[in-house]
Amino acid sequence: MASRKFNGFKKADFNVFKIDGLEGRMAALQERIQPKFQLLGEYFAPSLTAMTGDEMQYHIAKHARRTINPPKDSWVAFANSNRGYKMLPHFQIGLWETHVFVWFAVIYEAPIKEAYGEKLLEDVKQIRESIPADYVWSKDHTKPEVIRQSDMSEDEHKDLFQRLMNVKKAEILCGIQIPREEAVTLSGDETIARIEEAFQTLRPLYNLTKKTAVS
C-alpha cells in the first residue's frame, strides 16, 4: 500500500528533537518518527537476516526509563533476538537533530565485548583496509561525537579496540552519518539504498562477532 511506503526523512522529523519537555517530544516521536522506524524495521529485518544468516528482529527505541530529560536521539535496532538487542552485536538506524546514523554496534552491555576487542585487534590491518574513508567510529552511543576513518592512524584503531577490551563501559560503533541537509533531499528509496550499502559494508564487523568466543 502506498501509505506503507517509507518516504524518507523530512525537516519535521529532525525538528522533533527541538521540542521542549519529555511529554511533548515523546508524543512527536511516536507520531512522526516511530512509524518510519516501523517501516524500516519491517524492510531491513528480512534483509539483514539474509545478509547475516541470523534471524534478525527489529526493536524500536521506547525511551521508557526516561522520567525528566527528553531523548536527544532515537533509533530502530536489529539483533538476533526478539527479547532485546543491547547485549548483542546489532545494527541501528536512527536520528539526531543534526543527522541520520547507520551503525554496527557492540555496546557496554554486550558480554562479548572483551573477546571482540581482541578479535578486532588481531584483524586491525584488514579492518583499516575494508572500512571506507568517510565512515566513522564512536566510543559512546549516547554522544554524537565521532572519529572519521580517514583521520585514524593504526595506533588509534588499536587504542579503540584495546579500550573495548579493558574499560567496563567501553563501546564501539562503526557506520555512516548522513547530514540533515542531505538526508531531507533523499527519497525513501535513495535513503534505503544508502542504508543497505552501509549494512553490506559493515557486515564483516558483524561476521567477526561469530568468531568471538565468550569464556
Order of helix and strand elements from N to C terminus: HHEEEEHHEEHEHH
User: Which value, in Å, is the CA radius of gyration?
Assistant: 17 Å
In DSSP terms (H or I, runs of 4 or more residues), the helix count works out at 7
Task: Write down the overall geometry.
Answer: globular
Sheet of most strands:
7 strands, antiparallel
Amino-to-carboxy terminus distance: 48 Å
Helicity range: 40-55%
Contiguous uncertain segments of 5+ residues: none
Structural class label: alpha+beta
Average pLDDT over all residues: 94
Proportion of residues in β-strands: 15-25%
**Order of strands in the sheet with the most strands?**
1-2-3-4-7-5-6
What is the number of beta strands? 7
What does this structure look like?
By secondary structure, the chain is an alpha+beta fold. The chain is built from seven helices and seven strands. A seven-stranded antiparallel sheet has the order 1-2-3-4-7-5-6. Helix 2 packs across helix 7 (188-210). The N and C termini lie far apart (48 Å).
